Amino acid sequence: xxxxxxxxxxxxxxxxxxxxxxxxxxxxxxxxxxxxxxxxxxxxxxxxxxxxxxxxxxxxxxxxxxxxxxxxxxxxxxxxxxxxxxxxxxxxxxxxxxxxxxxxxxxxxxxxxxxxxxxxxxxxxxxxxxxxxxxxxxxxxxxxxxxxxxxxxxxxxxxxxxxxxxxxxxxxxxxxxxxxxxxxxxxxxxxxxxxxxxxxxxxxxxxxxxxxxxxxxxxxxxxxxxxxxxxxxxxxxxxxxxx
Length: 243
Known about the structure:
Structural class: alpha/beta
Strand order of the largest sheet: 2-1-3-4-5
Mean pLDDT: 84
Number of helices: 8
Distance between the termini: 28 Å
Oligomer: single chain
Order of helices and strands: EHEHEHEHEHHEEEEEHEEEEEH
Radius of gyration: 20 Å
Largest sheet: 5 strands, parallel
Number of strands: 15
Low-confidence stretches: 124-137
């Protein structure tokens, strides 16, 4: 994800439910290209913040006190990118007529949150990389929570990811990291960086595949099973890489 933005996108949460704002704040803290600038309980206060800070992304609840989210949105002339958050599906059509980036229904799963923020565009926050230093620092990475410590993991170092029920094991040539998060969430993280789900328990780096057969894939000398329900997709993908 980091490769898409040379500078983090500044974010503002506009949400009157403390639990909901806490969830979104926690999700933002786990995404390297997002930088939370504040939380507002109503749109009036948010207008003050927008007048003082450069905000790139709004996480905006629809049902707010004083001024509703969609009404607030219509008052903004130079509006940031907007991701709406709500417990009500019936406002989706009106929302997308306002050209929002995405529409998240509460309770919001982290994987769905990731799908939404991956739609964000760099906008004016991403200057063109015109120096050698910028190019050498362009490796994509993410910080994963490992034993209560945030550990940087470069995606191009990872060989494969293995499911441990509510946790996942990230395997590189040098180390093995265990982080909280089911394999479905890991698939959302890793798929944009050249990874392929081959089994309900395994995601592999496509460029690290050394060999494959009808029922297994070899990565770094380790044979990993190909799940029956994944075979067609996996071998279609691998076949397309052969040209």
